[in-house]
Amino acid sequence: MKTLAFASLAMFPILAAAQAGAAPSGAPVQRDVRWIDAQDRSRVATQVLTRRADGALVYRYDRQATPARRYHERMCELVGGVPAAGDTVLGGADAAGSLACTLPADAAGTPGVIVDGLFHPSPRPPADAAQGQDAARADASDDFAHAAAPGGAAPRGENFQAVGGAGYSSETGGTGSAKTSLDNDRCTIEQTTPVPAGASESVILLVTCIEQRVRALPTYTRACMNATCVTENGFIDVLDLSPPTR
């Protein structure tokens, strides 16, 4: 699969805002996202989210103003998809700016990491991919799900986006759902997708996070088609890229 280029997009979600005091359930919450467009112009979009009773933030593309829609459209365009419809649920204080994209049915979500506006595919192939797919099929012969966990490397102390992928197919139709998580659910994104009978759907989940320590950050993506589920685990190497002191 070809490498996805993000050279024209640099995103800087403002995570400090995400850590502010929680708004009441149902109240709108705003998150600013900054990026550089294809003409190297700095842009700012304000995402509007709704806080659920459990504290999670819900994002919907159709509730956004034009700048936030353009930001979402541009992101998905770069990965070969379009903005996902319906609710996208963000969990954790550091998940601001996260998005979901719907891909063509025959496409597969490529896991990896976005750093400084560039997409770096995971250098590690999906672990036990064939075995995981067989296990997903075993639960229900007419439903199938596959998952790809984020992997790669990210700098310490800087915002980055972890990229997970999921796909579904079903002979009878139903609902596909996916969750991509970092650091034992500190930063999460969840998305549900209706799957028509006999059809396939693919999604990419992009969750923004930050880590202050040099370590291996655990990740996973869990995908379900109705009651048929599969989980893939991975990790992101958080590195200290600051220049050495003399």
- Provide the residue-averaged pLDDT: 80
Q: What share of residues are in beta strands?
A: over 45%
The ordered H/E elements are HEEEHEEEEEHEEEEEEEE
For the largest beta-sheet, the strand count, sense and barrel status come to:
9 strands, mixed
**Helix and strand composition category:** mainly beta
Radius of gyration: 17 Å
Question: pLDDT below 50 for ≥5 consecutive residues: which ranges?
Answer: 1-21, 128-135
The general outline is globular
Treating each run of at least 4 consecutive H or I residues as one helix, how many helices?
3
Distance between the termini: 42 Å
Helix content: 10-25%
Strand order of the largest sheet: 1-2-3-5-13-12-15-16-10
Structure explained in plain terms:
Strands 1-2-3-5-13-12-15-16-10 form a 9-stranded mixed beta sheet. Strands 4, 6, 7, 8, 9, 11 and 14 form a 7-stranded antiparallel beta sheet that branches. The chain has 246 residues and is mostly beta strands. 11% of the residues lie in helices and 46% in strands.
